[in-house]
Amino acid sequence: MITQRNEKYNFSPQAVDELSALCVEALTEAEADRKDILRVRLSIEEILESWLDRLEGREVTFKSYSRLGRQQIEICVSGDCVKDDSSDENLLFSSRLLAQSGLVPVYSYKNGGNRLSLTLTKKMRLSSTAQLVISLLLAAALGLICQALPERVSEVALAVTQPMFDALVGLLKTVASPLVLFSVCLGITGMGDIHTFSTVGSAMVKRFLLLTFVISVLSSLAALPFFAVSFGGSGVETALFGELYDMLLDILPSDIISPFLTGNALQIIFVAIFLGIALLALGTRVSSVRDVLEQLNDLTDYFMSGISKLMPLFIFLSVFGLFCSGITDELASVIKCVILYISIMLAVTVISFLWAAAKYRVSPGLLLKKMLPGTLIAFSTASFTSAMSSVLESCEKDLGIPKNITRFSVPLGQVIFKPTSQLNYFIITICVAEALGVVITPTWVIVAILSTTLIAFADPPIPGGGVGMYTIIFAQLGIPVAGLAIAVSLETLFDPFATAMKTLSLQSELVLSTGRLKLLDTEILKRSKK
Q1: Pair 103, 140: CB distance under 8 Å
Q2: Which of 92, 172, 448 is nearest to 456 (CA)?
Q3: Which helix (H) or strand (E) holds 73?
């Protein structure tokens, strides 16, 4: 429980240090995670420093207190209203870091004071990943027990659980489509403006996108020989051309509403890309539209974060229903899926890691030691955002990557460097399709690769968040909703591993990309880690 405080200062650089220290002390009392405390301190300092130019010398108040069982921190600086400048990348970055740490930042202007309020969430005894795994195991155990009992027991259990499962699927569908739209659109606009993008970050962005696409396609093709692809009979080339032609035309929506009503992933992504490029090209002329989209994106992320808390229940209902429905005999392909995914993912990650080590003549053991802290956090939390502060620290202090590169490329890599997410989606999708008897044709494979690659860019950075993406992938590819139970089980198993491999691959790629730009400090890279 945090100590109640009410401290007053004159707003100055020294006061910023003292205020951030008070926040750290309050978070320590609230038993927040050490990594989150460091991240919050950085964020608080960035936000307050952005206010200094206009409010230096004014009275600032720090308060920490509990209200209705919720622990809160409030910093209030008197003076004119300081609006949140959406063009200030540091401020935006800080705000998102706070939200990703499990804190909800609220900016307001009230009674002549600029207020920054933080509401501390209660610390969970079990991690999100642990809750998901426990739900899966409990559902499997109870499902096996139901199978051993008279058939009437399973029928009653399904009559109770199936409506709840359908309601949660509907909730996921409701949030998934706007989540994809806003994530992809703002991923484009987040690159800045056309001029800045072309002069500062274009090389790294192009490399991220190209590598994601190439690795996704090659990885998907490597998995295909292990699945039965139907090429049909005579005239297959003409039919295939016709299907591909129809698929390309179908990407263009007939109106702005139907893609969201039907859950057409390719059309939603087309709208998002078109909107993002338009906003980027028009720049300040549509800054208010960009602000609205960012607010809607934050709102959607907030809803998704709330829904993610229901993921243990969703997993329990889906897996329990899977066992009670008696279709477990069709799950032999799941073992094949697990083996394929782990094999291909390890191959992709190891190749990029060894390439970075060999190119700059660094011992693989030393390089792994430097990259391991963030990778382990990503594995234990199944969340890249939880590992972000550790990845930033490793890149700047141990890998020889300049701070201005890491502050741009790490958040950017989180959004657009997604080969592990794509492979996760593709293999699980084709595995479920095979298990449920969906005909897998060459056109189906092309659509699956394209859909999963693009959907990966909207992958929510929270444990279990990817589950919602399967609702629109399955709708696009004609896979029955019943397949979500299999997808959920596999997603839960893969998520920690996939997040860890992405974190390791991204650090390797940052070393290679920075080296190509001739900005890598190889002396720091080769220096032994203390």
Answers
A1: no
A2: 448
A3: strand 70-78
Alpha helices in 251-310 (DSSP H): 258-262, 265-282, 287-308
Helix (H, G, I), strand (E, B) or coil at 319: helix
Provide the H-helix boundaries in 360-436.
364-381, 384-397, 403-416, 419-435
Neighbouring residues of 278: CB distance < 8 A, sequence distance ≥ 6: 286
Bridge partners, 117 (sequence order): 74, 106
Torsion over CA: 67, 73, 78, 84 (sign): negative
Apex CA 311: angle with CA 154 and CA 473, to 5°? 90
Strand, helix or coil for residue 223? helix
User: Which tokens in the block code for residue 316?
Assistant: 């329990």
Handedness of CA 392, 395, 400, 404 (dihedral sign): negative
Q: What's the chain's length in residues?
A: 530
383 DSSP assignment: -
Q: What is the pLDDT along the chain (530 residues), one digit of tens a residue?
A: 678 888 899 999 888 888 888 888 888 877 776 666 776 777 778 788 888 888 888 999 998 887 666 678 888 999 888 765 443 444 444 455 555 555 656 777 777 888 888 777 655 556 666 777 788 788 888 888 887 888 788 788 888 888 887 787 777 777 777 877 776 677 667 655 555 555 545 666 677 778 878 888 888 888 888 888 876 544 444 544 565 566 566 677 877 787 777 666 667 777 887 887 788 778 777 778 877 887 787 777 677 767 777 778 877 887 787 777 665 555 566 778 888 888 888 898 999 899 999 999 999 999 999 998 888 878 876 667 667 767 878 888 888 888 767 766 776 676 667 777 888 888 888 888 888 888 888 888 888 888 888 777 766 655 555 667 787 788 878 888 777 777 877 777 787 888 888 889 889 988 888 888 788 888 888 888 76
Q: Which of 435, 434, 431, 228 is nearest to 330 (CA)?
A: 435
56 exposure class (CB count in 10 Å sphere: 0-12, 13-18, 19+): middle
Strand partners, 73: 64, 118
C-alpha–C-alpha distance, residues 415 and 96, integer Å? 13
> What predicted TM-score, i.e. pTM, was given to this entire model?
0.61
In whole angstroms, give the CA distance from residue 404 to residue 221: 37
CB proximity list for 297: less than 8 A, separation 6 or greater: 182, 183, 186
Where does residue 430 fall: left (phi above 0), alpha (psi -120 to 50 degrees), or beta otherwise? alpha
